[in-house]
Specification:
This protein is of the alpha/beta class. The chain contains 23 helices and 28 strands. Strands 25-24-23-22-26-27-28 form a seven-stranded mixed beta sheet. Strands 7-6-3-4-5-21 form a six-stranded mixed beta sheet. α10 (302-312) packs parallel to α11 (330-338) and α10 crosses α12 (341-348). Bound molecules: alpha-methylisocitric acid and iron/sulfur cluster. The site of iron/sulfur cluster (SF4) has 12 residues, from loops. Alpha-methylisocitric acid binds at residues 37-38, 65, 119-121, 361, 496, 543-546.
Length: 646
């Protein structure tokens, strides 16, 4: 029987277990990626494991989330990460070099390989036909140390693309259409594999937009085949030797299928609140806006930023809004400069910012109370972007430019000259003399292991080692400290932005912000009560890979989370933190209920919960693999890994 792209990569990387649906497998990891906001923890964890050098083929430590160093602590983090990279054999991408995912697919991604990254948008690199998966820092630390990455064999959903995008309709609209159809939970347990005649019409940056935001469906990753377009992209990056062809066999079988006719799509907008709150532009055009923000790992490529510059040539953005652009990488920034395109942008009234994450996670450019911001980013929950009162709308760069010009949400198909501009940028991205601008001067290569011995790790007092993980008792008692609804994101559990970003290496301090936007008293209450339980709804912990959303509650003494279902990465992070993820109907529980959880039967997949306040009992499901049970019993992944290595 023929194999899909997914199966081909999985079968060449299986290290432990059987490649059968639903089985847990250990996957060999070729490349690892960390970034500054999850990376300090990941590297502290790597250090705790005690391996002398990184063992995977390539490990890259990026600085992008805190690159503007609003607080000195972030500069401390950067120096720590730099010295760790030198000591342990990783590449280090300096602040200003760009967003990890954009830089990674430009400079490191390789067809046929696996990549594990401590950021949920790691799948961006799957645009080149690799399996790039987002995970928590502890899992990445283990993979950097040469350990396998454990996951359940996912189902594969084929997304069959037909036709061709019309001018003004973008790759972003493809993924918004996927989100409109399957929602923010529709990809859970799946890898989304793209195929069909429409694939050949999409460039690598367009594919990268699609695989990037596949993360918002909850999918493990999304993958494109590696074809001639991939080869040409790698050639222009000076890396043709990294290419190999990788296509699904014609008789490959899939668990599910979605068909999208690219020719029939129209521009879309994810309206405030959730990435799947998608409406066609025809329904929402004319809506008021206050800000336009272009960039991020979703739409920060030269194809996107350059197109914006071509569309804004000789035009001016509307007077009553602000327009910001942050290119995805320095390569993109240099290309804009080299082609004279930055001038168009600045002249049109766009505020140019250095490459980085910035506004996407509320590190600057935070919209005001009730303000509407049109953004080319991938997330728009309330609280994302630095304020729970802001209203974020997700669009393509084309729709962002149309709206910037009009001063309200507008249809990009109506911009005069759009077809010519789309054609011009496509020619530019595929022309050798433009795209051959590569510049790795801000990527510091690893030092030879012999010299690495002498590197001294620089640690500021803000870099606080994790407290010891200890095995749990079989009977756990405590109150339901908070009860929340469905689709609670990691941004709800632990907000990002300038509020907390400098505290990513300081768990005791950052834990004070747990559930901050939902209930400012949560941390205090948890501490006073000596810990307890959290009750959630469906898809608890969707979104980012930040382990802090699990480790901060752990720091406050949370022992288990009761929820109807969990998002993949967060569930794994809870286990790694030694918190038991229990699936149970939480409707009958209320905040303040006194609970008792018995985990002596963890191996059976069932646990007993007693609600002492209501005098009732519930049976919870844990669905943990044997290894996960052992991790919980050890007190968390670090304690477990230490046990394994004596
Ligand atoms: C995000 O987009 O939410 C982040 C910030 O990049 C996170 C990682 C983090 O919390 O640092 C992610 O996507 O994993
Ligand atoms: Fe950075 Fe935003 Fe991408 Fe996260 S989603 S990596 S914050 S640009």
């Amino acid at each position: 029987m023929g194999l899909s792209v997914t199966e081909k990569i999985l079968s060449t990387h299986i290290g432990d277990g059987k490649l059968e649906k639903g089985e847990t497998i250990g996957l060999k990891i070729d490349q690892c990626l960390t970034q500054d906001s999850t990376g300090t923890m990941a590297w502290l964890e790597f250090e705790a494991i005690g391996v002398p050098q990184v063992k995977c083929e390539v490990a890259v430590s990026y600085v992008d989330h805190t690159s503007l160093s609003f607080k000195g602590e972030s500069s401390d983090d950067h120096l720590f990460l730099y010295t760790m990279a030198r000591k342990y054999g990783a590449y280090y991408s300096k602040a200003g070099n760009g967003v990890c995912h954009q830089v990674h697919y430009e400079r490191f991604a390789k067809p046929g390989k696996t990549l594990l990254g401590s950021d949920s948008h790691t799948p961006t690199s799957s645009s080149l036909g690799m399996l790039a998966i987002g995970a928590g820092g502890a899992d990445v630390a283990v993979a950097m140390g040469g350990g396998y990455f454990y996951m359940k064999v996912p189902k594969v959903m084929r997304i069959w693309l037909e036709g061709e995008l019309q001018p003004g309709v973008a790759a972003k609209d493809v993924i918004l259409e996927v989100l409109r159809r399957i929602g923010v939970k529709g990809g859970v347990g799946y890898i989304l594999e793209y195929a069909g005649p429409g694939v050949a019409s999409l460039t690598i940056p367009q594919r990268a937009t699609i695989t990037n935001m596949g993360a918002e469906t909850g999918a493990t990753t999304s993958v494109f085949p590696s074809d001639e377009i991939t080869r040409e992209f790698l050639r222009l990056q000076g890396r043709e030797r990294d290419w190999m062809e990788l296509k699904a066999d014609p008789d490959a079988t899939y668990d599910d299928e979605l068909v999208i006719n690219l020719s029939e799509l129209e521009p879309m907008v994810a309206m405030p609140g959730s990435p799947d709150n998608v409406k066609p532009i025809s329904e929402v055009k004319g809506h008021e806006i206050n800000q336009v923000y272009m960039g991020s790992c979703t739409n920060g490529s030269f194809q996107d930023m350059g197109l914006a510059a071509l569309l804004l040539r000789g035009r001016e953005v509307a007077k009553d809004i602000e327009v910001i652009m942050s290119p995805g990488s320095r390569q993109v920034e240099e290309l804009l400069l080299a082609k004279g395109l930055t001038y168009n942008l600045v002249k049109a009234g766009v505020r140019m910012v250095e490459p980085g994450c910035h506004g996407c996670i509320g590190m600057g450019y935070v919209p005001g109370y009730g303000h509407y911001s049109v953004r080319t980013v991938n997330r728009n929950w309330f609280g994302r972007g630095g304020s729970k009162h802001a209203r974020l709308m997700l669009t393509s760069v084309e729709t962002a430019v149309a709206s910037a010009l009009a001063g309200h949400l507008a249809d990009p198909r109506e911009i005069p000259g759009i077809a010519e501009a789309v054609k011009e940028i496509r020619e530019l991205v595929t022309s050798t003399n433009v795209m051959s601008i590569t510049d790795d001067s801000m990527i510091i290569p690893p030092v030879p292991p012999a010299d690495a011995q002498r590197v001294e790790i620089k640690r500021s007092p803000n870099i606080v080692p994790l407290r010891k993980q200890v095995p749990p008792e079989n009977t756990m008692g405590g109150e339901v400290l908070i009860k929340v609804g469905d689709n609670i994101s990691t941004d709800d559990i632990l907000p990002a932005g300038s509020l907390t970003q400098h505290l990513r290496s300081n768990l005791p301090e950052i834990s004070r912000f747990t559930f901050y936007y939902i209930d400012t008293e949560f941390a205090k209450r948890a501490e006073e009560k000596g810990g307890g339980f959290i009750a959630g709804g469906e898809n608890y912990g969707q979104g980012s890979s930040r382990e802090h959303a699990a480790f901060a509650p752990w720091q406050l003494g949370v022992k288990a989370v009761f929820a109807k279902s969990f998002a993949r990465i967060h569930r794994a992070n809870l286990v790694n933190a030694g918190i038991v993820p229990v699936m149970v109907d939480t409707d009958p529980m209320e905040q303040g209920d006194e609970m008792e959880l018995d985990i002596s039967t963890l191996d059976s997949g069932k646990v007993r919960i007693v609600n002492k306040t209501r005098g009732t009992e519930y049976e919870g499901t844990t669905d943990l693999s044997e290894r996960e049970v052992a991790i919980i019993r050890a007190g968390g992944l670090l304690a477990y890994t230490k046990q394994l290595h004596g």
